[in-house]
Design brief:
Keywords: WD repeat. InterPro entries: BEACH_domain_protein (IPR051944). The chain has 163 residues and is an all-alpha fold. Helix content is 78%, strand content 0%. It has one domain.
Length: 163
């Protein structure tokens, strides 16, 4: 029952143009920000990030896109925090201190019932925010984004602390 609804949602998102996707992003972002349930927040963020990744591939100016859609520093913080949280969950669920390769690959390739790949999307969003949107942050760079990236890499590599 639910899988039909979710696959229809995913199919509709694939067929939408830039303007509709921007509206979808804003709607999912608002759902994420206003939701009180962690499960609803996670679902809305996964959908917002999926739409963001689709939009990035359609726009020539990623920095302009980000500033048009959302407050860049808030979005980058949320994306970075979500990525670190997911990597920490992987580490916690792995046996011992080191991450298992199969778990990491699974995280970045698993597809949800919504037809999206949250791990891969999150990694792509972090990459875009760190590499493509630097002009937004030149005047007010969020140093936490760089720290989040380093912290995530250190977790993946099994380093205890980078401080």
């Amino acid at each position: 029952m639910h899988s039909h609804r979710f696959s229809t949602l995913t199919f509709c998102l694939v067929l939408r143009g830039k303007d509709e996707l921007e509206l979808d992003f804003r709607r999912f972002w608002e759902e994420f920000r206003s939701s009180s349930s962690e499960k609803e927040k996670e679902r809305a963020l996964n959908l917002a990030v999926d739409v963001f990744c689709r939009l990035v591939k359609q726009h020539s100016s990623i920095a302009q896109l980000v500033t048009k859609l959302v407050e860049a520093h808030v979005f980058s913080f949320v994306i970075g925090r979500a990525f670190v949280t997911d990597v920490e969950k992987l580490r916690i669920h792995s046996k011992g201190r080191a991450l298992r390769v199969a778990d990491v690959i699974g995280f970045f390739s698993d597809i949800t019932e919504l037809g999206i790949c949250p791990g891969s999307n999150l990694l792509y969003a972090v990459e875009v925010l760190v590499t493509e949107v630097s002009e937004i942050f030149q005047a007010k760079f969020d140093p936490n984004m760089f720290y989040v990236h380093l912290h995530s890499v250190s977790l993946l590599c099994g380093v205890k602390s980078i401080r």
